[in-house]
Each structure stands twice: as structure tokens, then as C-alpha cells.
Amino acid sequence: MRIRAFPMTMDERYVEGIWNILKNAIQEIQKKNNSGLSFEELYRNAYTMVLHKHGERLYTGLRDVVTQHLETKVRGDVLKSLNNNFLATLNQAWHDHKTSMIMIRDILMYMDRVYVQQNNVDNVFNLGLILFRDQIVRYGGIRDHLRETLLKMVMRERRGEVIDKLAVKNACSMLMVLGVDSRAVYEEDFERPFLQQSAEFYRMESQNFLAENSASAYIRKVEARINEEAERASHYLDESTEARIVEVVEEELIKKHMKTIVEIENSGVVHMLKQQKTDDLACMYKLLSRVQDGLKTLADCVSTYLREQGRALVAEDPAYGGKNAITYVQSLLDLRDVFDHFLKNSFNKDKMVKQRIASDFEYFLNLNNKSPEYLSLFIDDRLKKGAKGVTEQEIEAILDKTMVIFRFLQEKDVFERYYKQHLAKRLLLNKSASDDNEKNMISKLRTECGCQFTSKLEGMFKDITVSNTIMEEFKQHIQSGGANPFGVDLTVRVLTTGFWPTHSGNIKVEIPRAPAAAFETFRKFYLAKHTGRQLTLQAQLGSADLNAVFYGPFKSDDSSTDLAVAGGSNSALLAAGTRSPRRHIIQVSTFQMSILMLFNNRERLTYEEIRNETNIPEKDLTRALQSLAVGKPTQRILVKQPKTKEIEPSHAFSVNDAFTSKLHRVKIQLGVAKGESEPERRETRSKVDEDRKYEIEAAVVRIMKARRTLQHNVLVAEVTEQLKSRFLPSPVVIKKRIEGLIEKEYLARTQEDRKVYTYVA
Amino acid sequence: MGVFSKCFLPPKAARVDLMVNGGEVVSTTVDIIQRNPVLNMLWQHSLSEPGKPLQLKDDKNDVVTLLRHLAGQPVDLSHRELAELIKLFCSVHQYQCYRLLSDILREMERFQSPEYLLRIYKVLRPLPELPEIGDPDGPSAPPEIDLRDVDPEQDDFAAQLTRTYQRCLQVIDSRSSEVLSSDALLSLPLELLEELIQRPTLKARELDIGRGLLRWLRHHRFNSPTGRSDPGRALVLESLRLLTMSPKDLKKLELETENILSREELEAVLRLAHHGSGPLPPQLEEYRSYWQCPRDGGKAGRGLLKRLVGHTKGKGHGSHRGQDVTDSAERREAIRQKRNRSADKIKMALATGVSFVFD
């Protein structure tokens, strides 16, 4: 058998012959006459040439043949068509060239596989692309003409004319392919000028748009333009242009004018907020979020407006002597609802906008230092008895909203103090609508601030529960004859010191004999059960039901009407006189009870005499007498002489025998129901400040104990960080507390650096 | 125009007829055809003439073996003679089916004699896929042209090719006398013989090398009765280390009778060989140091040879590759470009809308 091995050499004429066959075939393919060619034979010929080390000859020969064809035939056709059907001619030439290069590549497959790889030259198809690029697309005027043609077509379409999109698409795809492995050709020959032209176009258009349109119309036009450009890019340019052209439109139509758009008078963001144009705002948000700093611009504008609104809401009007806590908080909640609505429906719950709104609320809420008190009062109002037609769910929702406001409060310790006071009143005066709601609120506070914040509040609840048990035991004790209540139906709440709000001084009020004796009975009972404890009567938060008999109407001064008052329902009544008596149960405070009981023995008493006999502090006495004598006409149990609103020490009081009421049970409202008076507020503030001193000291000691040595600034920062959930301590105050601790020898300054402290165990 | 289009492609299971050398028709499926880039390309171009079988100029057995291999069926090469394997190798190589080529090369390892290995050497040496080969006694280097990114099968083939080829060289060097006296030597083309005879690592007497060379020249009638500038003379002068031979061996070689050297030239060479010094005719003077350098003479001998015959070696296989690989930066760049090319192939296919199966 004869072995057909690969011959090492080939006759030059044979090589020439093979090459001529291949050359003719390539030319026939270029002339679209390939139907008679044998690809098998052509492939073998090309294979043989490469195998016999004639790859270079084949490669350069191919380059020459393709170049010649492009120069002589294709370029001429394209140049001829410059003013007539240019794009179609170019696209056809490109299509033909591509087709022919695929066939040539097939024939020269072995060259691509071996010669091209070993010599790091462009493969056959890429060689074809490069030649077409250099000889046709980038040749002389063709390049400029192609660019201008494409740009003009796009411009025509922007003006609403119909263009041959397919031709543009083919040309763009040709430019992309001609870049071989980059998009350089497409970028240089079309995309870059296209983006420049677009920028100029939209620069002009933005001026006209802004001059002629409102903000909402402008943003809608911009949105439409962006969509239009994106669609164009994806439909008939290269899709990689989409992001770039959109960026140009955004730059020209949004970024360069965003401040103007946002601030357009009577149609900008403020107008949209005022008019609650949720959709327009959403559109604005969508548009501005496309560009860098766009959202910041929007958020700045929203923030400015919100702060303005908020400042107006929290400003105290001196003409009206302060705000109504309920309307104050309600208006804040309403404002919050409005902005929540915008946040959800217009700003897509954007984190940044959300943070800005929160910080704005925090800003203006803390401008008014009464905010903690008002908030507590608002909650008090909602948790008190008497709210009609409000379901549990609604209360829950309101409480949730108030917690949002609560989060913005910096002085949470002040709120805690007020909340404690208000809760104490609700619990002691039995005004709380529902224990569940109260506990729910406390649990919310606990979630927000930790159990330390609410431990005393929970202690208050516990006291009430324990007191109820004690009272039941006490009543059983009385029923079993173990003690004499002196005719008084006594109810005592035993409060743990420290849990409850303390009042200034320990007032030693003279209460009437019967209730005092009843209390003494309870004291003995209680102390017998709990030895070692101390019970102190806190009369200022007590209340009493008095049975009263009026013999009026009796207008003359020498009235003989007796007011029979005593603690308890089964107390003895002193009834005298001939007129038909009217019986009422009067609900009063313990102080008022003490005052009224004086009239059982005396017909007329001056303010001075009442004060001396009851020992009630002046402020409380005035308040008690005001509601009894100059309060609502239906509650005037006493008559004052002279009949003025102000109460002076010489003014005299007597029982209003002409008192009438449709109600059997008459409740005497205390004068100032809502909020604190200015002196009280100052007192509260000073107590808060006092508490803060201890809290700061505790925090300093805690930190120093852990860290041992710390620089002043770091310590201040850590203390602020630890306490910010309750209040924001000022560095000056912290410094004072540190100095105090140094004096108390908890801390010491280091000898090397006076700004560094060490913990002294 | 015979432009093919994806939409006209028949289903994968459709039959394709291949007309082989001798007019016989072999039938297979589109699926199998598409597994080979060359067959796929040829078949796609044949679609313009439906019904006409695809014409191949290979023997039926070779085509059937190739199709079986493409179909994933076992191909038994173990009973084939070397001549059959070489024929199959040459056929399959045209279709760039590198996996089967690697299998054939592995099968060729069965053949150990110098005669066989010289035949294998003859087949492998011209292949463009053969990387630049260094010293066969030195550590075997990986292929200098990194084809891994392009096609792992082609890469594997290049590695196997290198191994087989180096084995051939080792046998040529270690059993040089047998190689030089074999019949297979006579079938080597001039370029391969020249390369073989000039090897500084041949382990044979210079007299035997000369005899082998003169035998080949006689077989190919390279000797000329008149001229002294024919390729035979040049080949002898550039290949043999004449001055490492004894005057006796030089006389035995009968260079004058073979018309390689003139009487005067031979006498001058003999004088020099005898005395160790003396003049040479000017036309031979340039060979003096090369002739004096013994085989296994290390770098000096090889360097001299390169300087002397550089002009002819430059045309030899892989000369351009040798230059490329000296610069590692250039080589890295070459590898990077190759990676790009594999991406190009995909891009190319996308641009043209033609689906190819790259084997």
C-alpha cells in the first residue's frame, strides 16, 4: 500500500495554480456566482496551502482580493449613491460583503484554525470587517455622509416625520459589527455625534419647555421624551445607546433644570404639596430620582415646606396663652398623615425622603419645649373615660401614631414625667377607660425605650391591683367587726414611694375628723399586716362623695340653710328648716371635702379662716374654692362675697342654699383641667433637670467603670450616645457632672493630661 | 445564489448522504454532521442543491470511521497497520477532528521500530499544529502556542502530537545507525532529511551518517557529474562534520566518486584531517570550524550550524513561532488576542446568523 503522507514541499507552480483557483472562487463569491463552486474542493485547496506552509500567501492574497473588490466595485457603487438612496446602497453592500465573507471564511476554515491563531492575525471574517470599515465606511466622504444621514433621519423622526427605521437599524448594526471586538466604530462614527446633537437639541427644547409650561406639564413632557428616546435606541439604534441617550436627556432636561422645576412658582413642588397633587409629585419623584442629586433637590424642597408648616403648628401664640394640647398633637398627626400619604403614594417610600421627613418632624417638634407635655396630655385624653364612639382599634391606631411623634421627641424623660403624672391621675381618680389600652400604651413605650423607661409605670399599675386586694381585706376586716370606719366608706390606694409622681413638700392637711379617724383605722390595719412600713396621707390626689341637703331657694343673707356634709354615704345628715330639702351627692376632691365640712359648723368663713383651719396650700385652696364658688353656675356650692372672680384672703364664703341641679350626683370640676400652669411647668422642668443630673452621673460612672481611662471628648460623646434615647444632654452639663464626680472622688484627672479621666474605684 | 439560511435547515434527525471516493454513498444524520465543523460547513453549502449527496474525496473506511467517532460509537484502532493508521490520520486531519487524531496518535505508540518511527516522523513533522520542539533530551516543554482557550481538543491534540514527535526524535537519536540504514529514510523529503542529518544529537559514526546521506542522494539522483554547486553537495557540506572523521573514514566515504568534492578539495580535507592544521580551498574555508566540531559538541556546534545554514532553516517549519515566543509580553498579548478570537467566533456567528458546531 502506498502511504499518502503530507508532502513537505510543493511545486511553486502548483501552489500558484491552487491559489488561482481559490482567488477565482473568492471573486465569484463576491460576484454572487457561487452556485457552481465546490466548497469541498476549495476547502481542500486552502487546507493544502496552509499545510504546505503557504498560509501567509493565502492570507495576503485574500486580503488583496477583498481589498481590490471593495475598492473597485463596492466603493464606486456607494460613492455613486451619495445623493441617491445612499443608506440602502450601503446596507446592501454591507449585506453582500458579509455574506461573501462568511462563504470565504468557510473555505478558509483551516487557515482560521491554524495559520491565524499561530500568527496572531485577524481571522478571515474580521479581516473582511476591517477592510470594509477602512475601504468603504470610513473612506473619504462616506464616513461623514453616513453620519450626517443617520443624524438627519433621527432629527426628522424627532420632529414627527416618518423615516426608514430599518435602514437606520441596519446601518447601526453594521457599525457595531465593524468594531470587531469593541464598539469603537459605532461610537466614533455615530453614537458620539448623535449624543452631542441630542444634547444640543434638548438644551434648546428645555428652554422652550420651561418657558411655556407648568412644572407638571414639563415633567410629563420630559417623561415622554425619555421614553421616546429609549424606545428609539432599543428599536433601531444599538441597544447599548439606550442608557447613554437617556442619560443625555436626563442631563439636559432634568439635571440642569431640577432646581428650577422644583421651585416653579404656583406649579412647583410646594404647589403640588399644598394642592395634594399626589400623581404630579410621583411623576416628579420618578423623574428626579433618575439624576444624581435629583432626589436631594426634591427632598430639600419638601423639607423646607414641611419645616415651615411644622414651625407654624408648634409656635406658641402668646395672645391665646398657649396651645390646646389636643389640637396641637392632632394637627401634628394630621401633618404626619399627609406626608405619610405623599411618602407612600408619591415618593415610593423612598428611604432618603422618609429620613428627611422624620428629621424635619424632629426638628420642629422639639422647637416647642411643651411638646412632651402636650403629647402626654393628648394620650391622656385618648385613654380617659368619655371618648365616645371610638373603638379599640381606633384607639390603637391613634396610639400607634402618637408613638411616631414620640420617637421624634428628644426630651423623652420630660414626656415620661408628664405621662407618669397623667397616668397617676387616671389611675387614682379611676378615669382610665380601659386597663388594656393603658397596658398596651405602656408596652409600646417599653418597646420604644426599654423596660427601664416603663418600670415605674408598671409599678403604678401593680400598686393599684395590690390596693384593691388590700381594700377588700380591709372591708372584710370592718364587716367582721375588727374596726370602726366612723361611718366613712373609705377607699385607700397604697402607693409605693418612687413609682408615683411626688408633689412639692409633704403637706400636712387638716382633714375632717370622721375621714381622718377612718384613715387611722386603715393605717392600723395596714401596718399590722406590713410591719415596718410608713403610710403617709397624700390628700392632694384624693376624692370624696358627700351627701348634701339644700333647703333653698333662699336668697336673703340671713339664710338658715344647713349644709350637711360628711364623708361617706351613711354619714349622719343634719337636716333642719321648713323648706323642702334637696338631696345631692357631691363629688369633690379631698381638699374641697375639708373645706365644705367646715360649713357644718360655721355659716360663713373667710378665705384666711379656711386656710388656717384646713392648712391647704394656698395654690390648691384657691383652685378648690374657685371651682366651688366661681366655677360653672351648676356647680356653685358656695357663695362668695364680694362676687368677683379673683379670690383674696378677706373674701368670705357661705353655702349656696339656692343651689339647684337636675342631677342627683353633682361632680365639681377642678378649675384647670388641661396642662400645667407656668409655675408648675417650671417646677416640673427643674425636677427634670435634677433627675438628669443623676442620669448623667450614672452614665458617666457606667462608662468609666467599663473603660477605666477615657479622654474628655470621648466620654462626652459616649454619654450623649447612651442618653440620647431619653434626652440630649448638653456638653456643658456633662462637664459639670464630671467635675462633680471628680469632687466626689469617683473620677480623677490623669497627671499627664488633664483632659483624660480615670475611674477611681 | 447559494446562500444558506437557518430557516431552511432540516431537522437534526434528517438523513444526509455522503458520496465517498469510488462513488459509494454513506448515509448519516444532520445531527452527526453538525458535530464536525468541516462536514457541517460542507453540508450547509450543499443545501443549495437538495437531493445531491455531499461529495468527499476520502476512502469509505476512513469516512465511516470518522462518522462512527462523531456518533460516539467505539472506534477500534488496535488491529490496524501503521500504514492504515497514517492514511486515516491524514484523512481525519482534513476534517479537523482533533479528538480522533489524538486517539490515532496514541495508537501509533504501538510501533517502536526505527523504520516505523521514521514513517511516523515523516507524517507528523510537516503539521502546522506541531509546536516548536526543543532539545528532545531536555525537559519536554509544553506547546509554545497556547490553544487551550480556543479548543481543548485541539490543545490535547497538540500535546499528544508533541509527545509522539519527541518519541520519534529520541529513537532517531538513540538508534541513529538503524535509522540511517532503513528504507524509510529514502522516502523522506529533502527538508526532513536535511533536518535529520544535521542533528547534533545523532548517535552514529560520522561515516555511517555520511553513507546514509549519500544513499538518499543516490536514490533521489541528487548527484551531478559536472557541477559542484548542486543541492547534494551543499547538503553534504552543511550536514557532515568531515574533520571529525579519520582520513581513512573520509576515504571510505568516496566523496570524490559521488561528485561531492573535487580531488583537490578532498586532498586538502584529508591533509587537514591528517595533520590537524593546514589550508582549505577558499570555497570550503567557511566550513572549517563546523566540520571540526564533533556531534554532541554542545552549543558551539549548533550555533555554527545555525550560522551556516540559517538561510535554509529560516524557511523551515515554525520559524516565525520561534521568534514570537521569546518575548513573554508578546506571548501574553498573543494569548489575550486568542481569547478574544473565541469571542469573535460567537460574534461572527451572531452577525451572520449561521450556526456552527465548532469541533
Entry keywords:
heterodimer; A: 761 residues; mainly alpha; 5 helical Cullin repeat like; 6 domains; three-stranded mixed β-sheet; three-stranded antiparallel β-sheet; 29 helices; 9 strands; 63% helix; disordered N terminus; B: 359 residues; 3 strands; 54% helix
Q: Can you give a write-up of this model?
A:
The complex is a heterodimer of chains A (761) and B (359). Chain A is mainly α. Chain A has 6 domains: 12-139, Cullin Repeats (5 helical Cullin repeat like, Up-down Bundle); 143-254, 5 helical Cullin repeat like; 296-457, 5 helical Cullin repeat like; 464-541, no CATH class; 543-552 and 581-667, Ribosomal Protein S5, domain 2, CATH 3.30.230.130; 678-759, Winged helix-like DNA-binding domain superfamily/Winged helix DNA-binding domain (Arc Repressor Mutant, subunit A), CATH 1.10.10. Chain A contains 29 helices and 9 strands. Chain A has helices at 12-30, 39-51, 55-80, 86-107, 109-119, 124-137, 140-158, 165-178, 184-212, 215-236, 241-254, 258-263, 269-274, 278-288, 294-314, 325-345, 351-365, 371-383, 392-408, 412-428, 435-449, 451-479, 513-529, 590-598, 607-614, 618-630, 678-707, 712-723, 731-743; strands at 543-550, 582-589, 604-606, 638-641, 652-655, 665-667, 709-711, 747-749, 756-759. Chain A has a 3-stranded mixed beta sheet. Chain A has a 3-stranded antiparallel beta sheet with strand order 3-5-4. In chain A, strand 8 (747-749) and strand 9 form a beta hairpin. Residues 1-6 and 554-578 of chain A have low confidence and may be disordered. The model of chain B is unreliable at 1-7, 135-148, 297-303, 309-327 and 346-359 (pLDDT under 50). In chain B, helix 4 (82-94) runs antiparallel to helix 5 (98-107). Chain B has a domain at 183-313 and 333-352. Chain B is mainly alpha-helical and 359 residues long. Helices cover 54% and strands 3% of the residues of chain B. Chain B has a 3-stranded mixed beta sheet with strand order 2-1-3. The radius of gyration of chain B is 25 Å and the shape is elongated. Chains A and B meet through helix 2, helix 4 and helix 5 of A and helix 2, strand 3, helix 4, helix 6 and helix 9 of B.
